[in-house]
Design a protein that fits this description.
The protein has about 425 residues and is α+β, with helices and mostly antiparallel strands. It has helices at about 10-20, 85-90, 150-160, 185, 230-235, 275-285, 315-320, 340-355, 380-390; strands at about 25, 30-35, 50-55, 70-75, 75-80, 110-115, 120-125, 140-145, 165-170, 175-180, 195-200, 205-210, 225, 290-300, 310, 330-335, 365-370, 375-380, 400-405, 410-415.
Length: about 425
Amino acid sequence: MLGLRQPRMMRNISALRWLATHSRTGPSGRRVLMPAYRQMSSAAPEGSSAKIRVERVTDFEHILDKSDSYSQIPSRAIIEVSGKDASEFLQGLQCNHMPLIDQGGAGMLTGFLAPQGRVIADGFVYPRNAGVNFPHPVFLVEVDARMKERLLKIMRFYKLRARISLRDASEEYAVWGVWGPGSGALGESTAAADVWLADGRAPGMGLRLILPRDAKPALPHKFEQKPSEIYALRRILKGVPEGPEDFAPDASVPLECNLDYMGGVHFSKGCYVGQELTIRTHHRGVVRKRVVPVLLSSAESNPTGANPLCIDLGFAQQQLAGLKPQPQADVTRVEMGGSEQHAEAEESHQQSAKPARSRRLPPGKLGGSMFNAGLALMRLEHVEAYMAQEAAGVSDARRLAFETTAANGGRLFVSPWSPSWWP
């Protein structure tokens, strides 16, 4: 129906159809993306269970970067902060450095923290590069739409006597992503938007544009518009978290969410809300958990729990059947080949020998997902052990695997890896 937003599951299926019709069967019989995503006679039919395979997990980071593309990014909200004290006000409210942008130019990634140092929301702050008196103190704060009301409430709480105005401008603006080989050449010459940034969260992320709600990016004709699910899939495969499904509110610290690796934390700035825990974690140099990309597979299709090394375009159909990943569900460790019972017995013995207050924490928690690709907050020691096992080709009965529980109670194996762009 016109004017109504499609349910998320139907949008997933639309993206599945697009991917299936923009891939082909390679010489080995595997489904691979076409170099320019052109439709070919060998494209998979609607509802196909085609798979896009790679040789190494890090190949996923670039598999959707081969053509010049753009997409609208849904479920984003814009808060306008204006007034003489706007830059100083935002400087004390988020963990990046406002002097980097308060004279105009590109925006920046940042995070908004609770006083205890836990992440409330990730976001972007942009100077509004327009007006006869530019530079002027008007900034657009982009956050996930689900976190807008809470962030507005926090801003009003800290406003006090600051000479600023706060306004919900979500109905006026839309957010777009631009990527591909030609996106780098656009740079600051993009007349596509007065409000923009070069998305440096991971290599190849491209540009991020803020445009009036009824406008589209003014790009060269070679750029092709893609479904928003393609943007989400690219982001996930690169290991870039975004929104409350990946940044669990009030649970993680910025470094666990890779904000330091993505350029969203300035460690030399002055005081801001939540600074103490962030700086202490940074100077201690110990971060035991981070958000990493993962692949999901059912126990029926992948009984060994090994990394499937493929994007399963038919996974949306399995989700319709109830095998849907649940954000913030525990990721648990399992040793294959019947050793689960041994592990349970050993854990029971240990619990009886330890004080009652001892407990066993799961290795991680699942974040957002698209098809069978997702993000998870995982303990790095477990990720490294799993990657070493996969590299060595371990296939005996006691191999390490991870699993989570789907919406219908079914098992989903979780295969993590660390991105190649990490320092």
